[in-house]
């Protein structure tokens, strides 16, 4: 059963108790994920990303339910210059990153057997608002597109992420913190060029720019790619390379 934020307000502790029953496996994807909105509305971000996450964890603990809590690469500073693994030092730069890290900590304090699954740059590639979908529409148009080339992350196909979450729910994976992201670091520029190429558009229409060309309210880590090495050691099947996953995602929505 999938519930929207309108159906379940996780900032309300009583609502969490109403929705969770013994034996349930709860996957908490609820969050204020717009990084700039979180920066402008820190109280709202804290209410959802931290307090709301704790409410869900406490309700799961009371109901003897299992919990998989989704988190983010933005808990890291981006200063390491290499992919981050599960035990690397955190250092969020933004309100979003800080509230998500606090949410991780609150979840594990309330329910130590919960799973915290960090992922990044999730895309579906269809008609939505994710980056691959936006670039898909741009590829169908004409003219050049400017895309930031100095922020590196881990593009992750939602279908592959869901498969990882199902594997965790089925058991046999050690926690509590895991990384589930498609393999290989990439910049937004890399990802955009790949979308154009997969769709038969000229990838040279994508022009690289620095993030300083379009300043944003919230700081972003410059290199927040995720490593899944230790998650694989914990029993989680590594996700395939992001370019392969992107090709499948775009093919699914083609014509």
UniProtKB/TrEMBL annotation:
Enzyme Commission numbers on file: 1.1.1.133
Similarity section: Belongs to the dTDP-4-dehydrorhamnose reductase family.
Pathway in which the depicted protein is active: Carbohydrate biosynthesis; dTDP-L-rhamnose biosynthesis
Disordered: annotated span: 203-229
Coiled-coil stretches noted in the UniProt entry, renumbered to this chain: none
Gene Ontology biological-process entries: dTDP-rhamnose biosynthetic process
Described purpose of this protein according to its UniProt entry: Catalyzes the reduction of dTDP-6-deoxy-L-lyxo-4-hexulose to yield dTDP-L-rhamnose.
Biased composition annotated in UniProt, kind: Basic and acidic residues: 203-215
UniProt xrefs under CDD domains: dTDP_HR_like_SDR_e
Family annotation (PANTHER family): DTDP-4-DEHYDRORHAMNOSE REDUCTASE, METHIONINE ADENOSYLTRANSFERASE 2 SUBUNIT BETA
Keyword annotations from UniProtKB, A to Z: NADP, Oxidoreductase
Record domain RmlD-like substrate binding: where: 2-252
An annotated Gene Ontology molecular function: dTDP-4-dehydrorhamnose reductase activity
Protein's name according to its UniProt entry: dTDP-4-dehydrorhamnose reductase
GO CC terms of this entry: cytosol
Enzyme class: oxidoreductase
């Amino acid at each position: 059963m999938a519930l929207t934020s309108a159906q379940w307000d996780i900032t309300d502790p009583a609502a969490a108790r109403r929705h969770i029953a013994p034996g349930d496996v709860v996957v908490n994807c609820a969050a204020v994920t717009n990084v700039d909105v979180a920066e402008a509305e820190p109280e709202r971000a804290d209410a959802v990303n931290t307090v709301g996450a704790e409410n869900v964890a406490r309700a799961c603990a009371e109901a003897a339910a299992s919990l998989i809590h989704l988190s983010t690469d933005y808990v890291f500073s981006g200063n390491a210059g290499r992919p981050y693994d599960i035990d690397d030092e955190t250092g969020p730069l933004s309100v979003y990153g800080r509230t998500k890290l606090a949410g991780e900590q609150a979840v594990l304090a309330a329910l130590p057997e919960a799973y915290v699954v960090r992922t990044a740059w999730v895309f579906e590639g269809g008609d939505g608002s994710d980056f691959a979908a936006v670039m898909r529409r741009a590829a169908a148009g004409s003219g050049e597109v400017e895309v930031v080339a100095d922020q590196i992350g881990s593009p992750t196909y939602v279908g592959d992420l869901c498969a990882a979450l199902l594997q965790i729910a089925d058991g046999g994976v050690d926690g509590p913190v895991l990384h589930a992201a498609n393999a290989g670091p990439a910049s937004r520029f890399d990802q955009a060029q790949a979308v154009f190429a997969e769709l038969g558009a000229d990838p040279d229409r994508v022009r690289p720019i620095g993030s300083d060309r379009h300043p944003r309210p919230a700081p972003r880590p410059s290199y927040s790619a995720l490593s899944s090495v230790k998650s694989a050691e914990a029993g989680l099947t590594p996700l395939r390379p992001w370019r392969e996953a992107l090709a499948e995602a775009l093919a699914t929505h083609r014509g």
